[in-house]
Amino acid sequence: MALAPKPKDFPRIRAALKFYQVASVITGVMLLLLCIEMVLKYTPLAVELELGGPRGFLAFVPEGTVVAVNLSTGILIAHGWFYVVYLFSDFRLWSLMRWPFWKFVLIALGGVIPFLSFFLEARIAREVKGYLASREAEAQAASGTAGSEPVEASH
Prior knowledge:
This protein is mainly alpha-helical and 155 residues long. The protein has a domain at 10-43 and 76-134. It has four helices and three strands. Strands 2-1-3 form a three-stranded antiparallel sheet. Helix 1 (10-42) packs antiparallel against helix 4 (116-145). The longest helix has 33 residues, at 10-42. The radius of gyration is 24 Å and the shape is elongated.
């Protein structure tokens, strides 16, 4: 029999879900920026994004000629760190929900497969919120029926 989350953990699960949702969106956006940056850099275009260089505030420059801040590298580094945060949020939600390991791996893939984090974020949020609502309804029904027999009063 699979272990179910404890009702006392429901507030922590809600907080973990919110953290996961934010991390998922940030990681997904960073992954899309990284994909665009890779296309710009490793195709015949061969350009990088430079910030504050001699060509203007933001400029595409030929690969290897960046003299100011290399935003292409910055995007790569930022995505890497946000992916670590995303994995932490995934682990936190996974462990509180007591899901099987394959689900942790599936959610982790959301940070490396473009657009997957957006689809998973919506699906996981719907699943967790539905689960919590059903468990709370069951608990409410169980506590509502216990000891709620009508009592007649007489004068």
